[in-house]
Amino acid sequence: MPKRIIFLTPYPNGKAPSQRFRFEQYFNTLKKHNFEIVTRSFLSDKTWKIIYTNSSFLLKSLGIIGAFFRRFILLFSLWKYDYVFIHREASMIGPPIFEWIIAKILRKKYIYDFDDAIWLPNFSQQNAKFQKLKFYGKVNHIIKWADQVTVGNDFLKEFALQFNDNVTIIPTTIDLEYVHTIECNQNSLPINIGWTGTHTTLSYVKELIPIIKELELKYDFTFTIISNQPPDFKFNSLRFVQWNKSTEIEDLSKIQIGVMPLTDNDWAKGKCGFKALQYMALKIPSIISPVGVNKTIVNNGKNGYLCSSSSEWKKRLEELICSKELRIQIGEKGQLTVKEHFSVEAQSDNYIKLFV
């Protein structure tokens, strides 16, 4: 008889990168090992579609109220499951009521997973009215009550170990077999430099704008931004592509140089290097900031570049723009790194161990 796992998630299936690339892509592997998978999101599809827009506060509030009601009703069926897996939080706002009930009243063990420094205040301007209800400090309690904790990097592990001794690092991974199955074409012209991410991290790109404008005076290239919302800045080579799940990998494969600038702070140190991993999986040579796990993913000058200063960013961008051979060489080594350490195949055994 298959064992049953219920995944309590903030967002509907297939919508959020943190869910898609931390555990959703392991569902087929778990099913092959005789596990039955059930997912229950806090936000409904309808509320998800408006939560990060400028829709009315009333509509968002009604969606959140409905989410709390569904979560409460769900508690009465948790006895049916062998494992409870909570990603980030059982409810997106408010204190850890559901985690407390699960652990202390229902006496149900749960696995807790997070992939960002979510104990730090971080919110979109569209939802600033809700930010006081986030209860960022609840993360400490959710970690403490968990049977085991999974995190994406060493920085997050160090934080979690303050409250729970049973902490495992499982890096955010790439599916090279079914998802990231194509590669970039380094023969296309003009060269396409690119960045991908959500609107919440678009601000990091701004530090590259002076460098891009300098390079525009010497070279013909495109700078593509793939995101859920267009940027609030402009420069001559800028091209915006609306993020679309069905074309995501195809759109990414058109990038020939991938960039991932970050500010060196605790929030950035909690990031799991996902942008860089996506680039590398498609043989896109990557230039990234040496912040947090990025320093573990990239061996500078071998499988990518780590750049701290404007002069370094300009130098590496210029080198890659001018040399197809270098782009191919760095891209191939980057993909090998993903295959050996950051792919679903490489981490599947570690993931299965969470449930046996």
Topology, element by element:
Elements: E1 3-9, H1 17-20, H2 27-32, E2 35-41, H3 45-51, H4 57-74, E3 83-87, H5 97-105, E4 110-114, H6 138-145, E5 148-151, H7 154-160, E6 167-169, E7 191-196, H8 209-216, E8 221-227, E9 238-242, H9 248-253, E10 257-260, H10 266-269, H11 274-281, E11 286-288, H12 294-297, E12 305-306, H13 310-322, H14 324-341, H15 344-352
Parallel strand pairs: 1-2, 1-3, 3-4, 4-5, 5-6, 7-8, 7-10, 8-9, 10-11, 11-12
- The CATH class of the largest domain, by name, is Alpha Beta
- The CATH superfamily of the largest domain turns out to be Glycogen Phosphorylase B
Task: Please trace the helix and strand order, writing H or E for each element.
Answer: EHHEHHEHEHEHEEHEEHEHHEHEHHH
- What is the alpha-carbon Rg in Å? 21 Å
Class from secondary-structure proportions: alpha/beta
Written overview of the protein:
This protein has 356 residues and is an alpha/beta fold. It has 2 domains: 3-170, Rossmann fold (3-Layer(aba) Sandwich), CATH 3.40.50.2000; 191-341, Glycogen Phosphorylase B (Rossmann fold, 3-Layer(aba) Sandwich). It is built from 15 helices and 12 strands. The chain has helices at 17-20, 27-32, 45-51, 57-74, 97-105, 138-145, 154-160, 209-216, 248-253, 266-269, 274-281, 294-297, 310-322, 324-341, 344-352, and strands at 3-9, 35-41, 83-87, 110-114, 148-151, 167-169, 191-196, 221-227, 238-242, 257-260, 286-288, 305-306. The strands form 2 sheets. A 6-stranded parallel β-sheet has the order 2-1-3-4-5-6. The chain has a 6-stranded parallel β-sheet with strand order 9-8-7-10-11-12, sandwiched between helices. α12 (294-297) links the parallel β11 (286-288) and β12 (305-306). The radius of gyration is 21 Å and the shape is globular.
